[in-house]
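[stage:ingest] chain + small molecule (magnesium ion)
[stage:ingest] validated
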Amino acid sequence: MSKQKTTFFCKSCGFESPKWIGKCPGCNQWNTFAEELKPSKQVTAWKKSGRKIAEPKPIQSIEASTQERIQLPDEELNLVLGGGLVPGAVILLGGEPGIGKSTLLLQIALQTPIKTLYVSGEESETQIRLRAERIGIQDNRCEILTETLLENILDVLEKDPPELVIVDSIQTLYTDQLDATPGSVSQIRECTGKLLQFAKEEDIPVMLIGHITKDGSIAGPKILEHMVDTVLQFEGDRHHAYRIVRTLKNRFGGTQELGIYEMAGNGLRGVKNPSEIWLAQREEVLSGIGIAVVLEGIRPLMLETQALVSTAVYGTPQRSGTGFDLRRLNMLLAVLEKRCGFRLGQQDVFVNLAGGLKLEDPALDLSLCAAIMSSFYNQPLPTKCAFSAEIGLSGEVRAVQRVDQRIAEAEKLGFTDIIISKYNKTNSPHQGNIKIHTFGRIDEVFSWLFG
Ligand code: TYD
Ligand code: MG
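[stage:predict] done
[stage:export] tokens:
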């Protein structure tokens, strides 16, 4: 019996090679090649009846009118998509297992008045029905198809085209044109390619759910992300109720927006005032807590940064950051040691961003440093004081972007003081309910705070 032909694909960029190689010549990454069965047949058009042929047109003759967008019943999702769903767009929603991808898209399917086909290769009809009952079934223009063979799905789409297609998940689909198993690089690439053709030719939007691998990237070839129009990432901590949808790529809008949801017993609910949930409502005044105003995308958020400093038990002190980059924490500690003369070398330092958030805004720096020093001295920070500034290597308090928006957010939430960099120019006049304190160096901030 002749051996089946196999070939090697790079999982990162899709580069094909007849033998295994350590470093991919396509994307220079190491150890990304996986063996797969060689595609046996030529790839054809998505429709049985052949393909349309496009003709070149002069650019002036192309209509410039902005495309009519489909408004989804979900404000947060409209926001991250850049103002609604564009007909013919292919959207990939990635996220860890159990985070709520199926819930979010089934919810869209059930709530939007447009005719939607929800294709599931992950769950049975009954499972979907049970989930739908939890969320609440509102209209009957949502159809469920449990199928994984792409050709069958395309037949359904050709016979009775819906206005929106949802596929849960792209990793479960396979085409009989290839011998490879579902979820393999070549299958994912092929199936996405066909669905993309379908979306573009018929002007019907397609939303795909994608799994995420251990390292946090969407499983399958990186080119999957290149192929689609929009990549959304669903993040959050499964042990907390809050979820964030971020735009990683968007051909039809910015990548600044952010959708915030709360997982409830009856599906996901958009959160209108995010700051209110991340600020703990507590009576006691505790040390080691600083309130930061950060920007996520273009939304200002206020949250608690917490720190615990305690005497190191082992020779090497421990450093740990939950939700915050450890290297940045080490840098901040080095700055505190060098520029402010605090001996943190013999102390364990733990920091945590409340609510299971993972943030990168440098404006967190000052709040974290203040929380660390507050824990070190065991002296609480003023409760109605917010922080928003970056710390530089020489201990300078650096300006942050959109400071007016941050001040306004702190003011709105009843804060009486905010500490920012003296290099930040504030433009809009503030009502005077909030005092703005400006500093140039971190040691000046500490002498003001701790005397
Ligand atoms: P799911 O949407 O299946 O996640 P994914 O498709 O990303 O793997 O499920 C998310 C979790 O949310 C699941 O553990 C159950 C929970 N859940 C709720 O808390 N409330 C709900 O209304 C629903 C439908 C699910
Ligand atoms: Mg799912």
